[in-house]
Amino acid sequence: MRFDLVDLRLFLHVADTASITHGAERAHLALASASARIRGMEDALGVALLKRGRRGVTLTPAGQCLLDHARIVTQQIEAMRGDLGAFARGLGGSVHVLSNTAAFSEHLPRALASFLKANPTISVDLEERESASIAEAIAAGVADIGIATDGAVAESVRAHPFREDRLVLVVPKNDELVARRRVHLHEVIDRPFVGLPRQSALQRHLAGHAARLGKSLRVRVGVGGFDEVCRMVETGVGIAIIPEAAAKRCRRSMGVAIVALSEPWARRRLMICVRASGRLPAPAARLFQHLMQSAGVGG
After folding, report:
1. Which residues is 183 bridged to in the sheet?
2. Residue 208 in contact with residue 131, Cβ under 8 Å?
3. For residue 135, which of 20, 143, 179, 269 sits 20 to 30 Å off, Cα-Cα?
4. Which residues pair with 170 in a beta bridge?
């Protein structure tokens, strides 16, 4: 039974994406090579690891067992690499960070910039996801550090306050809603919206809340960032729901106004998440301490 680290990391990516194609992309392998590696693992074990279907793959019981062991092995390798790197010049390694849209766009860039400048031998693999997915991934050991909303944090994750984050409604400066202190989503859900791309974590989050009202957001255009969203709102294309920090920044230079949302899900805190058990690799531990300090939390 001969598996190498490439095999194990490929299997982790395939399991995480429920797709051999997407797993191969994450592992930077050609699809044919990835498929051959998966088949080779199954042949070596004498048992199927994946159930293949038209919509992707799911793990067999043997595949779930391998997944659990593969995560342990790769975590130990990363911990070893980080610890040994501490003896070399500087501290080398890579840290896998998952973040929701608000932190990804507004809060993390500055904190990561100062960290990367101070740690030139460490790289950061930053991936945007929805908060619920982030908490699950951190608990499962898929990534080192996550930034998620407090409502998504589970007991299997250690969480520390990072930033306050509210979602607000952004409207043109001359819109009739400007006179309102706050509104409910159901009051504006039939209006045209401007949003981020459909696959973004925030857009999926908002689509879920609209679905609970039996509606869907009428998004006229999905653009690449919050500045572009506010530019569209300013010209009257539609209204938008974005993080308050981004809305306040854009309001200083654009003709937009902010209206509070009454929904409880619009008021949230961003949390720094790590696994409740186990030890972070040295580079990840250093980034964790940096984020804690940037949040004003003691190490």
Report:
1. 261
2. no
3. 20
4. 240, 258
Average of pLDDT values for 190-196?
95
pLDDT at 88: 56
Q: Is the pLDDT score of 278 beyond 90?
A: no
The structural domains of the chain, ordered by start, are 5-82 (1.10.10.10), 93-163+272-294 (3.40.190.10), 165-267 (3.40.190.10)
Q: What pLDDT shows up at residue 132?
A: 82
Q: How many CB atoms lie within 10 A of CB 296?
A: 8
Q: Is the dihedral of CA 81, 83, 87, 89 positive or negative?
A: positive
Sign of the dihedral through C-alpha 109, 111, 116, 118: positive
Is the pTM above the cut of 0.70?
no
Nearest to 124 by CA among 149, 153, 147: 147
Residue 199: strand, helix, or coil: coil
Q: Is 87 exposed, middle or buried (0-12, 13-18, 19+ CB in 10 A)?
A: exposed
